[in-house]
Each structure stands twice: as C-alpha cells, then as structure tokens.
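Hi R.,

Here's the input for the 5'-O-[(L-methionyl)-sulphamoyl]adenosine complex you asked about:
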Amino acid sequence: MSRFYLTTAIDYVNSRPHLGTAYEKITADVIARYQRLRGVSTHFVMGNDEHSQNVYRRAQELGVDPLSYCDRMEVEFREIWKTLDVSFDDFIRTTEDRHRASVSLMVKKIADAGDLYEGFYEGWYCVSCESFKQEKDLIDGECPVHQNRPDWIKEKNHFFRLSKYRDALLRHFESHPEFLCPEIRRNEILRLLESGLEDISISRSGQSWGIPLPSDPESVVYVWFDALINYISAVGFGTDEDRVAAWWPADLHIVGKDITRFHSVVWPAMLLSAGQELPHQVFGHGWVHFKGHRMSKSLGTSLDPLEAVARAGVDPLRLYLVREIPYGQDGDFSWDRFEERYNADLANNLGNLVSRITAMVYKYREGHLATPSGSPGRLAQVTEEVVGRYQAAMKRYALHEAAAVTYQLVDATNEYITETEPWKLAAEDGAAGRLTRVLFDISEAVRIVGILLGPVMPNAGREIARRMGDETSERDQRWTQATTWRTESARTILRGESMWPRLESKNLRNS
Ligand code: MSP
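And here is the predicted structure with 5'-O-[(L-methionyl)-sulphamoyl]adenosine in place:
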C-alpha cells in the first residue's frame, strides 16, 4: 500500500494557538483526510516546539518551571486541535526523550561529517522568530515579521557549514522542481541560493533551556536546529530504525511562508550532511490576516480558535478558511465576510439543496428511491468531470480549487432541478419512472458532494452522504468506490434538521 508522511510546523507554546496557526493545521488535516480517503496509509504528525527562549520567559513570568508549563500548554493545544477536528496520528514535543535522542544522533552525524566548527557570533537576534538576523533583514531596525527590535548578542557558538551545501541544494531544486511549492516560494529561495549561503550558528551559550550539545554541554542546540529534527525523530530516528525505514523521507512538510527558508535550505542541508534522504516536498502556505495585519498574538491581531468555533461551527469555519484563502497565498478572515460566505455557500446553496432533495423524495416517494430505470442524465457526466478536476487540484494542493470545483457540482445539481422540474413530472401521467430517475440522480450527485467535502468538512460531509443513503463511515470510505456514480442502489433518504440555518448579522458581529 502506498504511504504518505505529512507534517506541519511545530508550534511555540509561549501562547495558545490563534486562528492563523490553526489554519495551517486545518489545511494539513484536509490533505491527511484526503489521502486516507484515497486508501493511502497516512501518518500525520504535529507537535510543540518547546525549547524557545520565549517559552522559558513565559514560564518564568508565571513562576512555574518550564517543563510543567509546557505540559499544561500541551493540554491546551490538544484541546484546540480536537475541537477543530484535526486528525493527527502523532503529536511530538521537543522535550520528549525520543526527540532528545534523535537530536543528539543528528548532531553527532553532522559533526562526524566535519560540518560543525566553533566560532564567535556577534549580531542581531529576534527572539520572537528565534532567528539570527542580518542588518539587511531589518526594516527601520525592526524585525519585519514581529515589528520589534532584535537583541544584539555576542557569544561563542558552534557553526554548521551550510555554505558547503549550496551547490547540492541548487542541483536538488533543479532536478526536483516540485520540492518547494508554490512557485513564488521556490523562486524566492532559488534567488537566495544563487546569492550564496553563509554558515549558521547552531548553538546558544549560557542557556540551560534546551538540548545540550553533545560536544559542549555548556551550550544548548539552537532551537531551530533542534526543532527541525522533530520531523525525523517522530518516526524513530535514533530510537527505532524500522520506523524510520517505514516512514522516512516525509512526503510533505506544510509550513508558513515565514519559515520556508528553514525548511527548504537549512533542513535539507542538515539531512544531506547526516546522510539522510530529503523530504519530497515542502509547501509554504500564506498568512491569515485579521483586521488588516497578519494574525498574530504579538501584533495583537489574534482570534481564539475556540471562540471562532463557538460562533461559526467547526465545519463552516474550516470551509471558509479553505475556500476563501487560495492555498499558498495570504487571505483575510473577517466576520462580515464569514457571514456572507456562510449564507451564500451553506445556508442558501448547499443546505438548501440537501433540504430540497430530501423534501421532494419524501413528498413524491415517501423517502425511498427504487433502482431507477434508464440511464443517468447529464449530472453523472458532470460529476465524473468534477471528481477528476477535484483530484487534479488536490494533487497540486490547490485546496481552494478542490472546494470550488465541488461547488460546481452543487451548482450543476441546482440547475438540474430547475431544468427537470420534478414537481411537474410528479403531476404528469406516465412520468413516474422519469421522476424516480431524476430524484435518484440528484440524490446521487448530492451524495458525491458530501464525499468530496468530507476532507474539508468531516462532519457535514459524512452527514450529507448519510442522508443520501450512504452510511459508510469515514474510515471505511474509499475514493474510487465512493466517488463513482452508483447506478443501481435503491436507497432511503434520511430526513434531518436544516444543516445551516441562515445567520443574522447580530450573531457574529463585533469581534
Ligand atoms: N516553532 C516554529 C516552527 C518550527 S517547525 C520545525 C514556529 N512556530 S510558530 O508557532 O511561530 O508558528 C507555527 C506555524 O504557524 C508556522 O508555520 C507559521 O508560519 C504559522 N503561522 C503563524 N501565524 C500565521 C498566520 N497568521 N497565518 C497562517 N499561518 C501562520 O514558527
């Protein structure tokens, strides 16, 4: 069976996730659910990045030891991911023994390759990015991501010979055009590689919070060097070689555009140095903006995902994020826009479609549709085309396109109702067989809409398919069988409450 190893960035735990960080996990979850639906054995890993100075400082502010603080945050993070229906298979923390073992082994292999040396670092350091900055990276002396003044640090450091890997990386980018997506990120990084790479510091001295450097226990491993290794420690590097053989290399790292350089330059260079295979692909998504700025706790523009779910419902929230923000680009979240999309896409369109077909099947056929005679109408062909386009979009991780394509099927089904006028067929002598056929075809198209929406809206997708007579659980559902037009399956349509009652502005505004 083919397999798919998928990861997201691991999060700093100095604050709770906001809807921007949640966006990354939700979109990765859409991909994981889609892969599982395709019958691909999928391993989806997320986790927490704990050895950050900000985490240490936050714990100090609260007067707790950093590890207990991280334990507490793990509970909060997990609760949020659960509420958002993010179906990860493993959750890794960088303070775990399995990760420490892996970091030590990786550092040792890189040292054995002759790629570490001692030096002295003097320069800027942005604690929020946990990143060394050059003067040219700053705008008016501030970090452009966090809009704060970096610290000036001077310390003995251990350096990694990143510069040595520049040519190998360029060759890899050339021979693997899919390595970094989307195109805009690839071009940025190619320009960076072409302009040359400098060696990077991989340790911090005088700090106790972190993994000690095996060759110099007075220093800890630089938090990024430590964190990147999570992707391979989660599958057993240094602790379980059989698992590494089963899952490594990763198929896809999903990360934000601010950290694609770490993932497409530093991380592959570390792996090359340690003699490990490179991940197949890195996808750098864009940012969710809120109130005109990147959503961020430090910028004061964050939105609590739990609060958002309480207001919006988890499935509508997921649909909005996936459909509204072209995957790979930045996009906005606003409650006004959310309400507009909700009413248009869900209340008036899809929700109404489900209610209409259900009502007609009850009115004209007491809820049961016998196997229809004759051949299916045009909707079957439209569905086949839509399924093909959906697959093609998912292959490129154009999640927004996959959602939009699904809506083409919703639109085509609504048009089909208008064209076929089932209410007239019901009143017409000798049209009984034709009416069954038409109702059956509509229900079948709606069932497939439910399947296609499943990765984005796991609850609603399943519920739509269930109401259209497909009781298969998400776990047992398989792509080809599920998306192939069923010609002979008499079915009972299930009634249920209106899926998405219209929202009135007063419910959502003022946030
Ligand atoms: N800990 C590092 C990642 C280490 S991965 C080996 C980190 N953590 S973070 O908590 O700051 O960010 C986690 C992820 O959330 C990153 O991929 C980041 O790009 C993403 N996002 C943070 N703010 C975001 C938005 N406003 N919108 C979309 N993604 C956002 O970086």
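One thing worth noting: Residues 334-505 form a domain with the Isoleucyl-tRNA Synthetase; Domain 1 fold (CATH 1.10.730.10).

Cheers,
M.
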